[in-house]
Design a protein that fits this description.
With 289 residues, the chain is α+β, with helices and mostly antiparallel strands. The chain is built from 8 helices and 12 strands. It starts with a strand and ends with a strand.
Length: 289
């Protein structure tokens, strides 16, 4: 039976997701791997008026879960899971999706993101005829491995004078992103750090990173350089600017980033800085009418 989970089930949900997600063959890349980060993420979904968590009950015991991170404005839902300890994965996952359809009512775009080693997730994508989007690398930088690039260009913390321009460029180029320009700017200096770089007084690019509830980790959300100025050192400067800002916090040990597999130039830049590839993930989506 599929049911909507409640906050009293948080510990069970956290344990199930933690056990499953740290195995590549069961991984959902929208889910964290650290227990406290998983717990906080599911707590936010359970408390949300938009997002929700579904559970699969077998004889009264919670044996499967899936978080739906919903953005009503964009009409998208990112699936954190499904994670299943027992039962037929494709059947239970399809039932969860049908439950979500009834709850959301209007046509939504479901986004799926998972380790390429998760074969049962791939079979589920084929069954529901989800559309393949791309593959992405997850990379991780350890503080002791960081190597600063040799460039004279410097990124700075976002100035109010450039905030509107950054928001405009972001929303124009990343309409389907989980992170809107408004959210990125409003969360700067609290849970995010946003940097920018100029060329001749004009905005050349920007980057944003996020600090997580897990005290030793942060992640880079995005790095963008205007097309005419790419491969001229601006990417390195933005990356270095964010890493330097993150490591001002002495507690942070690791920085994560996700990049598309066909972006070989930026992959090389990240590897030069000391990042290591930890997984290769598949991205699919399903649009409901």
């Amino acid at each position: 039976m599929i049911t909507k989970c409640n906050i009293e089930e948080l510990e069970v949900i956290t344990n199930l997701a933690y056990e499953q997600n740290n195995r590549p063959e069961y991984n959902s890349a929208y889910c964290f791997k650290a227990r406290e980060a998983i717990k906080d993420d599911f707590l936010q979904m359970l408390k949300s008026k938009e997002s929700f968590v579904l559970g699969y009950l077998n004889k009264g015991t919670l044996m499967g879960i899936c978080g739906f991170y919903v953005d009503k404005e964009k009409k998208t839902a990112d699936l954190v899971g499904p994670f299943l300890k027992e039962g037929d994965y494709r059947s239970v996952s399809a039932d969860m999706l049908a439950f979500a359809d009834r709850k959301l009512k209007e046509g939504y775009r479901y986004n799926f993101f998972f380790d390429e080693q998760n074969s049962r997730y791939l079979e589920f994508m084929e069954e529901i005829q989800a559309e393949y989007q791309d593959q992405e690398y997850s990379l991780l930088l350890r503080r002791s491995n960081y190597k600063k690039h040799q460039t004279k260009k410097r990124a700075k913390e976002l100035s109010p004078n450039y905030a509107d321009k950054v928001k405009e460029i972001h929303d124009t180029n990343f309409k389907d992103s989980y992170l809107s320009g408004k959210e990125m700017i409003s969360s700067a200096k609290s849970e995010r750090k946003v940097v920018y770089i100029t060329a001749g007084g004009e905005l050349a690019g920007y980057g944003a990173c996020r600090f997580w509830v897990t005290p030793d980790r942060a992640s880079i959300d995005i790095i963008y350089v205007v097309p005419a100025l790419r491969n001229q050192g601006y990417e390195q400067a933005l990356l270095d600017g964010m890493i330097a800002g993150i490591y001002e916090n002495e507690e942070i040990e690791y920085i994560g980033i996700v990049i598309e597999t066909d972006d070989r130039d930026f992959l090389e830049i990240c590897v030069e800085a000391g990042f290591e590839v930890t997984s290769k993930n598949c991205s699919y989506f399903l649009k409901r009418n």
